[in-house]
Amino acid sequence: MPSFFTSLFYTSSLIFIPPYTIFEALPNQQKGFELFINILKKYKITKWTLITALPLYWEPKTEVFIKPTTAKNILQYFEIKNLKYSPTPYYEFYSGYRNFINEIKSIANPSIAKNNAEFSSFLMMAINIINKK
Fold it and tell me: What's the pLDDT score for residue 76?
């Protein structure tokens, strides 16, 4: 099954056309991600939370929801230096963050890693508890 971004719907007025209609043939996820950003830029609503909510809904075990504070805290706690967060969404960060979350999720207990939203929430709560000690 293609990812959300590779099967992205097209809209010029935020009227949604069902997935798999126009962009089935997009060769890769990065182009779909950038297309989505460009569509939302037109309306000045390019926010991480908006851009990443639909892919997470589409594929919750693979894709990630980027809530800025949570992502920054997770990267800081794990001392990840090769991912640079920016308030402006860009694919390299999304891809790197998703790979990082999926990598650590793969070694976590399955009871806390059913999907990426639950796993990220668990990480954030655990980091908050550890930082309070």
Answer: 95
